[in-house]
Amino acid sequence: MKDGALWSPVLLQWFDAYGRDLPWRRDVPRDPYKVWVSEIMLQQTKVEAVRPYYDSWMDRFPDIPTLAAASQDDVLRQWQGLGYYSRARNLHEAVREVAAAYGGKVPKNKKDILALKGVGDYTAGAILSIAYGEAEAAVDGNVLRVFARLYNIDGNILSGPVKKEITALVQAQIPQGRAGAFNEALMDFGAMICIPKHPRCGECPLADICMAKRAGREQELPVRIVKKKVPTEPVTVVVVEDNGRWLIHRRPPQGLLASMWEFPNGTDGLDGVRQLTASAGVMIDVDDQPVGTLKHVFSHKIWQMTIYEGRQIGGEIAEKEDWQWLPRRDVTSVPWAGPHGKITAMAR
What's the helix, strand, coil split of the chain in %, to 5? Predict the structure, then answer.
């Protein structure tokens, strides 16, 4: 296959017949806010996992003014379970900027969209092509994999030069008037046919022109950087209860799981947790034996969590906004930090 060969009509024909029915695709014309939300949710999360969160989000925040007016706690609580909470915080901040600077309308200019918090080349390309019909490429991991196989590209697809090469190939295939459909067709094709490890070449509408298949390399491509070993961090958690209330702590406003609530915990064992609660004014007693363990995997580390139960034996919370006693009946009223939401079920 020559680089200039136009095969996008074949892919679009397949997409028209087999494209997925997804809730964020049902508006005609497409709502740029809904496209934006769906693309942020889909980063590092599978479509089937996103569906219920998207529907719930749109019930709560149906438009830009509603989301812009919401509190961060409300936003994080609505996002809880999707992970990578910086995505929600960035989306919230960016939507507030759109409300303030663009009259609540997502800008059509690529430079302006890219200036929004949390919006990169892929998301900008998706919004511009799907919502506004602009001839912009939207290149993510699926697209890199598809093009590496179609064009038998054996360079590391995560490297800058290869990404640039593939982006140019994508751009060259965008059909006039159907840029959004083409980008969505690539998304579905990568998720349904040209899947990782074992592509479904027998069902592929592009099998006859796929250079990797012709070379017998369809299962060895694409080439990706081998991930570094992810370190495991032991974390001790204490669920401190007093008269039907739990002692909880808000994480710092920056960094991992920023501004979300958790049970007292630390990496220095039970003594470290006792010192932590003492710094907030609360003395605790902790059971000798843990009530359970929990493993939580982030992209860059693993928390191996050991959970204990404890109780207050003295003191009171100092006047600090980052500590509170939460009635157990109000367990859903705060955005829990990652695995701590699961710990509430264990403790209850």
Answer: 45, 15, 40
Averaged pLDDT for residues 297-303: 90
Pick from 140, 154, 172: which is nearest to 39 by CA?
A: 140
In the predicted model, what is the mean pLDDT of residues 129-152?
Answer: 97
Q: Which domains does the chain have, with CATH numbers?
A: 8-214 (1.10.340.30), 232-347 (3.90.79.10)
Q: Rounded to 5 degrees, what are φ and ψ at 264?
A: -55, 135
Q: Which two tokens stand for residue 209?
A: 């022109």
In the numeric block, the tokens 């054996």 are attached to: 154
Question: CA 308 to CA 9: how far, in whole Å?
Answer: 60
Contacts of 299 (CB under 8 A, 6+ apart): 44, 84, 230
* Angle at 211 (CA atoms; ends 208, 217), nearest 5 degrees: 110
Cis before 290? omega within 30: no
39 is catalytic: yes
**H or E element that contains 284:** strand 282-286
pLDDT for residue 81:
87
| Dihedral of alpha carbons 175, 180, 184, 186, sign | positive
Asked if pLDDT for residue 118 goes beyond 80, the answer is: yes
Task: Give me the catalytic one of 39, 165, 184, 262.
Answer: 39
| pTM attached to this predicted model | 0.83
Query: pLDDT (tens digit, 9 = 90+) per residue, 266-294?
Result: 999 999 999 999 999 999 999 999 999 99
Contact 250, 322 (CB under 8 A): yes
